[in-house]
Design brief:
This protein is mainly alpha-helical. It is built from eight helices and three strands; from the N terminus they run αααααβββααα. β1 and β2 form a beta hairpin.
């Protein structure tokens, strides 16, 4: 049985300042994400046949997960996979916009990059309570902006996540308190579009459609 582990953070806690503060990053990564990893390992300990299945594949095949651990796996595998992507789609000195095929598809789908940003921001702010905002790749080769509650994943819906924003209060409360709009606005400054471009090309490569 392979134990799920916290992925290596690709940067120091303080490098996303002033947009995301070091203390929030430290607690978010080392405490919150670690808890999801611990809880996932505890859940699948009861069913060792799932011990070598990745968090993403557990989410995709929740129907085959035994009922006694299904809720725990959904929450914990979702929390693990969602956070693992979240760290990767941020970086300091980030690009202002995506490029290449992703940029073209954003323009085709939303009209412009600015319109996409507005749609994504509105979606993030409209999510009631805890959850995530997403840009996902659809099985028809298109793009979809949407949100999920709690630690639910687009993978459950047959979508491939490309970009995510954590809108649980623990992601921003130390710095922004109840000011989610300010947090979302500032977050755009650290979006790692190079990584999101990579995610898009990987998703398109797995699609039956030629993008």
């Amino acid at each position: 049985m392979t134990e799920h582990k916290l992925p290596t953070l690709p940067y120091a806690y303080d490098v996303l300042e002033p947009y995301i503060d070091a203390r929030t990053m430290e607690i978010h990564y080392s405490k919150h994400h670690q808890t999801y990893v611990n809880n996932l390992n505890a859940a699948i300990e009861k069913h060792k046949e799932f011990g070598d299945v990745t968090a993403e594949n557990l989410i995709k095949s929740l129907g085959s997960v035994p009922e006694d651990i299904r809720v725990a796996v959904r929450n914990s595998a979702g929390g693990h996979a969602n956070h693992s992507m979240f760290w990767q789609v941020m970086k300091p000195k980030a690009e202002a916009e995506p490029t290449g095929k992703l940029s073209e598809n954003i323009g085709k789908t939303f009209g412009s990059f600015k319109s996409f940003q507005e749609t994504f921001t509105k979606t993030a702010l409209a999510q009631f309570g805890s959850g995530w905002a997403w840009l996902s790749f659809t099985n028809l080769g298109g793009l979809e902006v949407h949100s999920t509650p709690n630690q639910n994943s687009p993978l459950e819906e047959g979508l491939i996540p490309l970009l995510c924003l954590d809108i649980w209060e623990h992601a921003y409360y130390l710095k922004y308190q109840n000011r989610r709009p300010e947090y979302v606005e500032k977050w755009w400054n650290v979006v790692n579009w190079e990584k999101v471009d990579e995610n898009y090309l990987a998703a398109a490569g797995h699609s039956l459609l030629k993008i």
